[in-house]
């Protein structure tokens, strides 16, 4: 742009002015050694060019990392929004929902939760799972990450077939009372249904972290077939030649080495210098008062130097660990964000084996990947009669329609021309029976939705009844728990550990279907969970200091009674859900006083104790 020309347009100059400008131009040209450009023009061009150069530098500076930062935020939104901020893997089709994540730390390592360096081919799911789920809103603490890396070093030093392990094994075989050892161990016995096993194993790993023990996992019939090893270098599986493995099935409350039984018979001398070579811990749902003393600080002090602890449990007993004073500070450091224990430990420990991962990914890509929203509905009834039951179907519809999780249908079929851009919803149903998904599928096939949305209903399997000991049954169960955890919205059944696993892995606060009574759908039919944490079905109600019974759901603000089991304990209470908790207390069935800071409420209704824990 010529500023001199602009000046001339604003005010017609005289000839004297033109001559003066010409002389000035010649002088400037001589000064700068150029006959074709003026100082003013150079300055003007620079002003125009600098913003353009700066904008171009922003676009091309680290393009992949900048796009990834946008994608990290977008992953918590709808799948359609994610596509605008990420690079798809593959050439389209269902693989278009899978994305490369340039930020390795926050991507495949789950924010540092996982260690790098594993053989990816041996366990594809470990570093690929993040491609199928939204980025978690819950970040692991730096202290938890540090402790996990420290535990991995301990496991490498003390795991199976190491010098320390062989030394401890020889001491165990001798059967003599011994003093301190290089490494202490806790052996988890594979027991109960798959959901219970996953939850109890996560609890036992947390206990190992708190007590600096090495966790070894009884292989049972299918643990190696279902899960990858979570620790580098050394397996977490207990060798099959372990000397006590043949006694695992027979261990019970009356076993001679049972900790509770020994306390009951005054067979433990806490002041003795030497300790038993091993103790059996019976924390199954039928455990007695002396077994429950495990959750007292005094007994933890005694157990500290017992080299081998053998544990059988079908419970998620994490909430009661938070009530042990000596663990309180460490747990607070590990989990400063309350209500995220299983979410972090579950994603760290439980990686589907390649066979199970194939079941998961094939189903997801075929039926769920293209949906704008995925709704998981987990249905489990505790009824000896053969279903499906109308009152259960009525309850499912009442919950999902009332909470606007599913669109209502137009029974008059007045909607004739659906929108070309209709939103696609995929409903994933998991149930032992096919009837519930068939009813949903027929409803959305026979009638249009009021919103114009298109709804697909899918159910991977219907095994008719639980078959805990069958390999393929458990493969399907594990894959369906995982698929549920990949949904955007989740509805689960009361008392079911199957649903607990899914909500914890997915970091989802589900809507819980209340347990039905007298073949009647309850009113209200469901309520929103207070946190993603599972429920401890059989907690102790004992004050270790006062040595008397107490409601352990009233001791601290972050351990409460469960929404679905009034006597159970659950780890929560974040500020984010406190208002939801207070507003829905009138809908709970409980016979126990539930403590809320500055407020106490009692509901006189009661419900029967859970008769089946293998869910």
What general outline do the C-alpha atoms trace?
A: globular
The rounded Rg comes to 32 Å
Number of strands: 19
Strand-residue fraction?
Answer: 5-15%
Structural class per helix/strand content?
Answer: alpha/beta
Distance between the termini: 79 Å
Write the layout of secondary structure elements.
Blueprint: H1 3-10, H2 15-32, H3 39-60, H4 63-74, H5 79-83, E1 87-88, E2 99-100, H6 124-128, H7 142-158, H8 163-174, E3 185-188, H9 194-211, E4 214-217, H10 223-226, H11 259-264, E5 278-283, H12 297-303, E6 308-313, H13 318-321, H14 325-334, H15 341-349, H16 354-368, E7 373-378, H17 390-402, E8 424-430, H18 435-446, E9 454-458, H19 471-485, E10 489-493, H20 497-506, E11 511-513, E12 526-528, E13 535-536, E14 542-543, E15 548-549, E16 559-561, E17 569-571, H21 575-583, E18 594-596, E19 599-601
Parallel strand pairs: 3-4, 3-6, 5-6, 7-8, 7-10, 8-9, 10-11
Antiparallel strand pairs: 1-2, 11-12, 13-17, 14-15, 16-17, 18-19
């Amino acid at each position: 742009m010529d500023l001199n020309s602009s000046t001339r347009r604003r005010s017609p100059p005289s000839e004297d002015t033109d001559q003066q400008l010409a002389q000035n131009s010649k002088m400037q040209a001589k000064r700068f050694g150029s006959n074709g450009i003026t100082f003013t023009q150079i300055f003007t061009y620079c002003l125009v060019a600098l913003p353009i150069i700066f904008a171009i530098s922003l676009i091309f500076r680290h393009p992949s990392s900048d796009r990834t930062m946008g994608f990290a935020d977008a992953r918590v939104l709808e799948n359609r929004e994610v596509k605008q901020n990420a690079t798809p893997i593959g050439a389209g089709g269902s693989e278009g929902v899978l994305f490369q994540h340039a930020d390795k730390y926050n991507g495949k390592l789950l924010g540092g939760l996982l260690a790098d360096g594993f053989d990816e081919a041996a366990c594809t799911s470990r570093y690929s799972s993040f491609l199928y789920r939204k980025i978690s809103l819950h970040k692991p603490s730096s202290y938890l990450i540090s402790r996990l890396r420290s535990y991995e070093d301990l496991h490498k030093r003390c795991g199976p077939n190491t010098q320390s392990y062989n030394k401890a094994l020889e001491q165990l075989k001798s059967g003599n009372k011994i003093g301190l050892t290089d490494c202490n161990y806790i052996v988890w016995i594979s027991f109960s249904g798959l959901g219970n096993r996953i939850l109890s194993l996560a609890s036992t790993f947390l206990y190992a972290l708190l007590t600096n023990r090495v966790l070894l996992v009884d292989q049972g019939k299918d643990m190696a077939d279902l899960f990858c090893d979570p620790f580098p270098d050394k397996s977490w599986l207990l060798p099959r030649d372990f000397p006590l493995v043949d006694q695992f099935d027979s261990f019970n409350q009356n076993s001679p080495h049972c900790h509770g039984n020994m306390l009951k018979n005054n067979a433990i001398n806490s002041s003795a210098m030497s300790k038993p070579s091993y103790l059996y811990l019976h924390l199954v749902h039928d455990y007695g008062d002396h077994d429950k003393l495990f959750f007292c600080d005094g007994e933890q002090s005694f157990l500290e130097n017992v080299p081998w602890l053998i544990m059988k449990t079908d419970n998620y007993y994490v909430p009661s660990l938070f009530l042990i004073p000596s663990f309180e500070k460490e747990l607070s450091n590990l989990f400063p964000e309350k209500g995220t224990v299983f979410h972090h430990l579950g994603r760290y420990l439980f990686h589907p084996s390649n066979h199970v991962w194939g079941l998961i990914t094939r189903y997801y890509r075929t039926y769920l990947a293209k949906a704008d929203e995925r709704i998981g509905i987990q249905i489990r009834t505790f009824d000896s009669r053969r279903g499906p039951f109308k009152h259960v179907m009525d309850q499912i519809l009442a919950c999902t329609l009332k909470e606007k999780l599913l669109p209502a249908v137009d029974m008059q079929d007045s909607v004739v021309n659906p929108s070309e851009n209709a939103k696609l919803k995929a409903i994933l149903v998991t149930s032992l029976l096919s009837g519930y998904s068939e009813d949903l599928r027929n409803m959305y096939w026979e009638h249009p939705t009021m919103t114009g949305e298109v709804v697909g209903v899918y159910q991977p399997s219907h095994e008719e009844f639980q078959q805990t000991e069958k390999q393929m049954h458990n493969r399907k169960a594990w894959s369906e728990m995982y698929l549920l955890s990949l949904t955007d919205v989740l509805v689960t059944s009361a008392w079911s550990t199957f649903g607990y696993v899914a909500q914890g892995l997915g970091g989802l606060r589900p809507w819980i279907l209340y347990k039905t009574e007298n073949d009647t759908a309850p009113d209200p039919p469901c309520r929103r969970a207070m946190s993603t944490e599972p429920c401890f079905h059989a907690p102790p109600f004992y004050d270790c200091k006062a040595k008397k019974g107490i409601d352990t759901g009233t001791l601290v603000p972050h351990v409460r009674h469960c929404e679905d089991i009034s006597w159970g304990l659950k780890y929560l209470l974040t500020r984010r859900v406190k208002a939801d908790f207070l507003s829905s207390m009138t809908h709970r069935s409980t016979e126990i006083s539930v403590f809320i800071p500055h407020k106490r409420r009692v509901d006189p209704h009661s419900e029967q104790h859970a008769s089946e824990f293998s869910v």
